[in-house]
From TrEMBL:
Region (Disordered): 547-580
Protein name as catalogued: MFS transporter
Keyword terms, alphabetized: Cell membrane, Membrane, Transmembrane, Transmembrane helix, Transport
Localization (cell): Cell membrane
Major facilitator superfamily (MFS) profile domain mapped to chain residues: 18-542
InterPro entries, sorted: MFS_dom, MFS_sugar_transport-like, MFS_trans_sf, Sugar_transporter_CS
Domain of life: Bacteria
Membrane topology: Multi-pass membrane protein
Residue ranges crossing the lipid bilayer per the database entry: 20-43, 55-77, 89-108, 114-135, 156-182, 194-213, 247-273, 285-305, 312-329, 449-475, 496-514, 520-538
Length: 580
């Protein structure tokens, strides 16, 4: 049995340092994400002011999307480095790259000062952040798992998830605090830079703590025994037995975990603000309080996975989420904005249009343009968070919105008088909705705060159940020599792409169907897929010996061809690959 599996029950000072240092990456990731989202409007004015305001905001969103898109590529780069050089120095480098990029955004001159160089540098910094994130989480998960006692690996790795939820509150407090101290005008001019610059404190603490760490004992013993992989990418994804496990990890574990995370945090926030008309500050506070209340349950479910197994905890969490999402979000409507619920029931909205003129408005980068009168009508209603019924007509004339007894014709964006028509359309639709009783904002006096918070806590508990044990499962699924590489790619594809596309996909589904709850079919579908794949194919990994070949992964004699041994040349190793 490995020495790291027979240590005493008490956590040493060095063990606590491992957990704190590894968790700081999650703090940085979440802190940067919330800053970028909260300050998107200001950032668009600072770095993309050379174009019109609408296009500037689109380019800002595109730069954030690019950060998500490159995460899997970062996982390939840093995963290979982590398996070749070591865990400590790799994720020391990733957090340094992440922190420096965040800090430099606070120093970057605006478009008015350096012209086109401003948006180019800004996008490059976002790409560097995305690349570093691709190697950060997998490095932390691998490092902690390889330090943890086997009987407590679920509990130890669950700590990596806990700081991320607290970062939401940290970023919110700093933004609101700086805005309050300097005033709105100064904040828009220069105060927005302060939250980015303050990340230097977090970066310095992170580097200082990580410099004190030692290399993973499991990785060190593997290196001493000359068992390290010379080509971790080829071994992880070029051999079917390892690639198969990566695909199972993606489709039977991470995809579902990712959409549960994004639904409980980001889609819930979007639903509160866009659909239920809660002001942004109040919605952020509600989400923040719920997540803080749920944070200890990451550890609870991590401990539970050590007792009963990783797979039962995660699969039960996924199953509950699949059945609970629609009732929970309908409950939010009932308790947050009962006036909206009443208007939807008493004065239903209809969109009368030729289906051939209507597009599926999937727009993950914010760069697509939907110009038909049907698209304009549906986009206006979906953006306002309103349900409607599609009424098909063979007539190709202008789409019509019926609200109670009123009818509001839409317009085509390519019309010569589009700007005038847009103003007319917006005013007429606003008047018709007001007459039908549709509220422009949620009335705080009608919000049931207790039930709202309870529902958000339920969404948060589903996150903790499915996310808490994930790091342990991923680390235990793969052998030490390729663990960093093999963990990185499925995790970053799942969270960067499946999770990152959730808002855009959900909006497109709502716009196409006219049902404000229809966007939930995206996470529910992925959750059901993940549950079915996971229940059949995902192995139970609890108590796996990290220094042995996983019991569920068959041994192959040719495996020795991919390990570095004294006296073996690169040509001999390449011949081994060609012999497969």
């Amino acid at each position: 049995m490995a020495s790291n599996d027979i240590r005493g029950a008490r956590m040493s000072r060095g063990d606590r340092r491992v957990l704190i240092a590894s968790s700081l990456g999650a703090v940085f990731e979440a802190y940067d994400f919330y800053l970028a989202g909260s300050l998107a409007v200001i950032i668009s004015k600072q770095f993309f002011s050379g174009v019109n305001p609408g296009a500037a905001f689109v380019f800002t969103l595109l730069s954030f999307a690019a950060g998500f898109a490159v995460r899997p590529f970062g996982s390939i780069v840093f995963g290979r480095i982590g398996d070749r050089i070591g865990r400590k120095y790799t994720f020391l480098f990733t957090i340094s790259l992440m922190g420096i990029s965040t800090f430099l955004i606070g120093l970057l001159p605006s478009f008015s000062e350096i012209g086109i160089a401003a948006p180019i540098i800004f996008i490059c910094l976002r790409l560097l952040q995305g690349l570093s994130l691709g190697g950060e989480y997998s490095g932390a998960a691998t490092y902690v798992a390889e330090h943890a006692p086997a009987a407590k690996r679920g509990a130890w790795t669950a700590w990596i998830q806990t700081p991320a939820t607290l970062s939401l509150l940290l970023s919110l407090v700093i933004i609101l605090g700086v805005r309050y101290v300097v005033g709105d005008d100064a904040f828009s001019a220069w105060g927005w830079r302060v939250p980015f610059l303050l990340s230097a404190v977090l970066l310095a603490a992170s580097i200082w703590i990580r410099l004190k760490l030692r290399e993973s004992p499991v990785f060190s013993r593997m290196k001493e025994q000359n068992k390290a992989s010379r080509a971790p990418l080829k071994e992880a994804f070029g051999q079917w037995r390892n690639l198969r496990l990566s695909l199972i990890a993606l489709f039977g574990l991470v995809a579902g975990q990712a959409v549960v995370l994004y639904t409980g945090q980001f889609y819930a926030l979007f639903f509160l603000t866009q659909t239920l008309k809660v002001d942004m500050t109040t919605a952020n506070i509600l989400i923040g309080v719920a997540l803080i209340a749920c944070t200890p349950f990451f550890i609870v479910f991590g401990v539970l996975s050590d007792l009963v197994g990783r797979k039962p905890v995660i699969m039960v969490g996924l199953l509950i989420a699949a059945f609970a999402y629609f009732p929970l979000f309908k409950g939010l409507t009932h308790y947050v904005n009962p006036a909206l619920e009443h208007a939807l029931d008493q004065s239903p909205i209809e969109v009368v249009a030729n289906p051939a003129d209507c597009s599926f408005q999937f727009n993950p980068t914010g760069t697509a343009h939907f110009t038909s009168s049907c698209d304009i009508a549906k986009q206006a209603l979906a953006t306002a968070g309103l349900s409607y019924r599609n009424v098909a007509t063979a007539d190709s004339s202008t789409a019509l919105i019926r609200v109670g007894a009123d009818s509001v014709p839409a317009y085509a964006a390519l019309s010569p008088r589009a700007r005038e028509e847009a103003g007319r359309f917006t005013a007429a639709l606003t008047e018709a909705l007001s007459k039908a009783g549709y509220p422009r904002r949620a009335d705080p006096a009608q919000i049931n705060w207790g039930m709202t918070l309870l529902i958000l806590i339920c969404l948060g508990l589903l996150i903790t159940a499915t996310y808490g044990p994930v790091a342990a499962v991923l680390a235990e699924m793969f052998p030490t020599r390729i663990r960093y590489t093999a963990v990185s790619l499925p995790y970053n594809i799942g969270n960067g792409w499946f999770g990152g596309f959730l808002p855009a996909t959900a909006f497109a589904i709502v716009a196409a169907s006219g049902d404000i709850y229809a966007g939930l079919w995206y996470p529910v579908s992925l959750i059901v897929m993940t549950f079915l794949v996971g229940i059949v194919l995902l192995p139970e990994t609890k108590s796996t010996d990290l220094e042995a070949e996983p019991a569920f992964q068959p041994r192959e004699p040719d495996n020795e061809k991919y390990r570095s041994k004294p006296g073996r040349s690169r040509s001999e190793i390449n011949n081994g690959f060609r012999g497969l």
